[in-house]
Amino acid sequence: MSPDTLVSWLDLLGTFVFGLSGAMLAVRRDLDVFGIAVLSVAAALSGGLIRDMALGATPPAALATSSYLLAALAAGGAAMIAHPRIERFTKPVMVLDALGLGLFAVTGARKALDYGLEPLPAVVLGVLSAVGGGAVRDILVAEIPRVLREEVYALAALLGAAIVVIADLAGLAPTPAAMAGAFAAAAIRILSVRLNWKAPKAPRRRD
Amino acid sequence: MSPDTLVSWLDLLGTFVFGLSGAMLAVRRDLDVFGIAVLSVAAALSGGLIRDMALGATPPAALATSSYLLAALAAGGAAMIAHPRIERFTKPVMVLDALGLGLFAVTGARKALDYGLEPLPAVVLGVLSAVGGGAVRDILVAEIPRVLREEVYALAALLGAAIVVIADLAGLAPTPAAMAGAFAAAAIRILSVRLNWKAPKAPRRRD
Amino acid sequence: MSPDTLVSWLDLLGTFVFGLSGAMLAVRRDLDVFGIAVLSVAAALSGGLIRDMALGATPPAALATSSYLLAALAAGGAAMIAHPRIERFTKPVMVLDALGLGLFAVTGARKALDYGLEPLPAVVLGVLSAVGGGAVRDILVAEIPRVLREEVYALAALLGAAIVVIADLAGLAPTPAAMAGAFAAAAIRILSVRLNWKAPKAPRRRD
């Protein structure tokens, strides 16, 4: 399997896993089959849609072929059928979600560099690609997005995107850098959940 | 009246009705005159704005002429003046809203096909055009969007968009297909409200 | 200092002040350092991002250079370090926020005119540029946006954008018109806060 084919498959896997996060939330909120489909698609595709609309890359990858939509809808279907079983697999779902986060961060940063963005904007667009879908998903059910509530979620995406951009500045080969970035982002995310890491907050006045 | 002129008028009518839904929500939430204007415009134009930004069709139709904005603001003005009277006409407002939903679904899917999108993405963009304005409207007042709460809302849009795309695949004339799609979507929506249809949910564990 | 340099500096100042509004909200909501960074960037850049995506001006100004991101992140850092001190300066922060509102309204309307939009859409896009960042900021923490809750917030932006567009129709020089528009918008906003102005609401039935 060539690296490109691998990345395409991982990208579809990331889309499926993000779609699953939307579908599971929809089931928990007791939404019907169309609500499940809407949240699956929103969670899986919004990050990439925002990225491509910001870059002027139209039609966006998420709509240029049917495969991303099919992956998102397949996740919705899986949650419809097997919701209680998936709920029990919290650990594998969390690991896959971390992998999706890392993959979306590196592919977002890579695409931003390919469109000529400077390093800092490219990192930010990578983070936005990775956390945007989850943010839209949570906003749709009137919740504060996980990226704001959870420790070390944006940080993991930031690390993945930064590795891609720094490797690009250093003239390193893009594919291994993307792999390293996605792996590092996923590892940090998984470790932070397992070890319950906390990020620092602003010092506050005592009341 | 030529079919194109008819579609333009129906499009403006759909914009007005969607604007009315935003304005009536703003009045119910006790917002002031600017809040009413903001919600009218957001409800009426967001769906088309998202559609056109995703397609790279800039400037978006909603901003390329003043007529859509005027229709949305006229809806805000009508709600300001005649709010209690409009509240009493729930049935005609619901029927017009269903017609707006159908019209936006078919014009969204049609525009996506014209921009070269594949069938499934074209259907999804049609649905997004139809339900996006209402979603932005509800998010702005921190509510879960109607498309997630109400039975058979996304389905009606899906049916309208699918009829347009399937007719296109079958090589049928676009104008009658759009008319049929908008009519079918509106009919399904109205029937579902009158007959209180429920869409299936995912099976859940008993607690 | 040339007018263009002045406008660039004022634009960065507006970005910083809007970023500060996001960062202060994040600190009040007890978010961690990444949540503060996300809300700073969202509040400071979303309005311009939406404006540029709607105009097809890609990459958007907010991502075309690093300076806007740095200004937004600097605001996040300032809030992290000096949150209690900034809280005490409510009056200067409100004045700077009013200035940011005016600046974003006039630069948004100006850019819309430069891209060939008609007068009414140009005014609306100016308002959207000015209030969009705050709306995204508030939606991210599941609050009804300030533009809908606060009296005379959208009106101030509307006035600034309208002055730019009317001056353009009258063939007046753009730079003084932009200065006048930003000043008028900021003045109206500050006066409305100091004098506690109320905008009219729709007449309601008594219960």
TrEMBL record, chains A, B, C:
<comment type="similarity">
    <text>Belongs to the UPF0126 family.</text>
</comment>
<keyword id="KW-1003">Cell membrane</keyword>
<feature type="transmembrane region" description="Helical">
    <location>
        <begin position="119"/>
        <end position="140"/>
    </location>
</feature>
<feature type="transmembrane region" description="Helical">
    <location>
        <begin position="178"/>
        <end position="197"/>
    </location>
</feature>
<feature type="domain" description="Glycine transporter">
    <location>
        <begin position="95"/>
        <end position="167"/>
    </location>
</feature>
<feature type="transmembrane region" description="Helical">
    <location>
        <begin position="152"/>
        <end position="172"/>
    </location>
</feature>
<dbReference type="Pfam" id="PF03458">
    <property type="entry name" value="Gly_transporter"/>
</dbReference>
<keyword id="KW-0812">Transmembrane</keyword>
<keyword id="KW-0472">Membrane</keyword>
<feature type="domain" description="Glycine transporter">
    <location>
        <begin position="9"/>
        <end position="83"/>
    </location>
</feature>
<feature type="transmembrane region" description="Helical">
    <location>
        <begin position="94"/>
        <end position="113"/>
    </location>
</feature>
<feature type="transmembrane region" description="Helical">
    <location>
        <begin position="62"/>
        <end position="82"/>
    </location>
</feature>
<keyword id="KW-1133">Transmembrane helix</keyword>
<feature type="transmembrane region" description="Helical">
    <location>
        <begin position="33"/>
        <end position="50"/>
    </location>
</feature>
<dbReference type="InterPro" id="IPR005115">
    <property type="entry name" value="Gly_transporter"/>
</dbReference>
<feature type="transmembrane region" description="Helical">
    <location>
        <begin position="6"/>
        <end position="26"/>
    </location>
</feature>
<protein>
    <submittedName>
        <fullName>Membrane protein</fullName>
    </submittedName>
</protein>
<dbReference type="GO" id="GO:0005886">
    <property type="term" value="C:plasma membrane"/>
</dbReference>
